[in-house]
Amino acid sequence: MSGAFEQAWLLLKAAFIPTDPQQQLGAGMFRTVYGQEYNPDVTKFGYGGLADMSTLTTLARMYPELFIGEKPAYLDYPVGGLPDFVMRRPTGEPISDTRELGTEVGMPFPSTQERGRPLEKPEGYTAHSWLQSRSKPLLSGPGGIYDKYPITEQLSMWDIKPENWIGAKDGMIDAQRLGSPTLSQAKLMDPMFLSPRNMYGPPVNVNLDPSTIEQFAQSYTPVEQFAKPWERMSDQFGTLSQQDRFEDMLMGEAEREQLILDRLGL
Fold first, then answer.
1. Considering the domain boundaries, does residue 30 fall inside one?
2. Which of 99, 119, 224, 235 is most buried, by the most CB atoms less than 10 A from its CB?
3. DSSP labels, 204-240
4. Could you read off the pLDDT of 151-201 as tens digits, one per residue?
5. Quick check: is 132 in a domain?
6. Burial class of residue 212, CB neighbours in 10 A (0-12, 13-18, 19+)
7. Tell me: the pLDDT tens digits for 142-151?
8. Which domain holds residue 24?
9. Inside any domain, residue 17
10. Overall domain count for the chain
């Protein structure tokens, strides 16, 4: 790849500020997702989640066939701030807890991730029913993710509902086929770790190969370093209250990071 082409490719993949609500691809409890024509990545806006994001990105380096990493990004904020619609659903409804995520207290920070196609959800799908009927078997059933990737069980990975997968390769697949031999057609883009105790019971200790732990340790980016693009944005564009909120968030993420690393004896 020539230097000029590589530079153009990196610019194409850069985080961007959406200019139209129609660019929104989805919205979760804490973040929104936007796509841009010809950009192979999406830009997400939200607040927090750095410890889980860095853990996901590490696992994506170790197991690129199953995970897609996500990284904090830097953006020059417009003088008037981000467009009002950025942290809203297509209906205009704010996503959950906008006092935490919005411009009043915190800044919506961007991250980038490879773009893919959504999974086709089964008829009558609800996130609750999926967690009960499909999530547990997919994780801990015979030949499940925990069996194939034991580190995910040690990290108590969860929240693998269809919204948190994307179709890789040839695009959309039926979510009912997750866990079949075609699993490699889909990748996890937004799982969580340290599942609630009441969901899967007390954490178990898995006998991990020391080389797996070493590989994780060598690939892992500490939250303080991972957060540098957001820290720079907070310093340059945030109000004093937003900067204070960022520091509080960073301390909370460092505490969660330690819980994750403790699970691996790191």
1. yes
2. 119
3. P-----HHHHHHHHHH---HHHHTHHHHHHHHHH--H
4. 999 999 999 988 898 886 555 455 555 655 444 578 899 999 999 877 777
5. no
6. middle
7. 888 999 999 9
8. 3-48+71-116+223-256
9. yes
10. 1
